[in-house]
Write a structure and sequence with these properties.
α7 packs across α8. This protein has eight helices and seven strands. It is α/β, with parallel strands linked by helices. It is globular. β5 and β6 form a beta hairpin. It has a seven-stranded mixed beta sheet.
């Protein structure tokens, strides 16, 4: 059975950097719940009052640029966002997101069609993004098996723990 991610869209422009995702003044913690309380607060004052589990961020080019901090995708995931769809991602953000189990999909055509508040369904296994408002379905290359395994495990460290059958110390 294919898991479908469903949620309301928060639509953002280009160059949403890691400082806009999680302001530097909150980086003294790595606690996901604490980071979630401040996700997007300097860029979208309404985000935290409106976000619900499963919601989806859609953005233009260069999402996650700036510093290489892992805090940014952690804050997004902990706020309840199920995935991020963008025209392009900063490479380090893309990999950090996968490593913490946050699906990120690059699909310019979907971004062009999706509006703020639309409801979207995403099948990671099929590589499909469906905008329920427009009825359009967009295709992306599904993740390779190794990356899908990381996402399904909830992140790289969870996968390592599962495979080793032991706990792995965290930093």
């Amino acid at each position: 059975m294919t898991e479908i991610l469903r949620g309301k869209v928060f639509r953002y422009g280009r160059d949403i950097n890691t400082d806009l995702i999680i302001p530097a003044r909150y980086l003294m913690t790595s606690d996901p719940a604490e980071l979630a309380k401040h996700c997007m607060e300097d860029h979208d004052a309404t985000f935290l009052q409106q976000v619900e589990p499963g919601d989806i961020i859609v953005a233009e080019e260069n999402f996650g640029s700036g510093s290489s901090r892992e805090h940014a995708p952690v804050a997004i995931k902990a706020s309840g966002i199920s995935c991020v769809i963008a025209k392009t991602f900063a490479r380090i953000f893309f990999r950090n997101a996968i490593n913490i189990g946050l699906p990120v999909l690059q699909c310019p055509e979907a971004v062009d069609d999706i509006r703020q508040g639309d409801r979207v369904e995403v099948s990671l296994e099929k590589g499909e993004i469906r905008n329920l408002r427009s009825g359009k379905t967009f295709h992306v290359t599904p993740y390779p098996e190794a990356l899908m395994e990381i996402i399904k495990a909830g992140g790289l460290m969870n996968l390592v723990k599962k495979k080793r059958g032991t706990s792995v110390p965290t930093c």
